[in-house]
Amino acid sequence: MLLAGNPKYKIILASNSPRRKELLSGLGIEYTVKVIPDIDESFPETLKGEEIPLYIARKKADAYKPVIRPDELVITADTIVRIDGETIGKPADEADAIRMLQKLSGKTHQVITGVCLTTTDWQRSFSTLT
Known about the structure:
Keywords: Hydrolase
Helix content: 25-40%
GO molecular function: nucleoside triphosphate diphosphatase activity
InterPro entries: ITPase-like_fam (IPR029001), Maf-like (IPR003697)
Cofactor: a divalent metal cation
CATH architecture of the domain at 10-77 and 111-129: Alpha-Beta Complex
Protein name: Septum formation protein Maf
CATH class of the domain at 10-77 and 111-129: Alpha Beta
Radius of gyration: 16 Å
């Protein structure tokens, strides 16, 4: 596996997401959480589907480029939900979260996550749809 047991890089998870932490821990990957606050997560209206979380994951990665050390690999990610042609991102507050859950309840929807792996020398990104 690329990350597990890789002595070349210290893994930096650029997220406070409990699910992302759980995923890395479940894979046996040692990591440190470092989050740059208030990264702008806006995106051009012309982007569709998987382009949106990929764009935002790369944008988050770009915020880390000035501070990445040569021995670090930074993992950034973003997730959106698509339902009835609408893209739903992070809820603005608790009321928005409740509205979103009510909208999704009992309906088929798509969850799209964009992930970006960044070092001082390279950057790779991919998305997954569930």
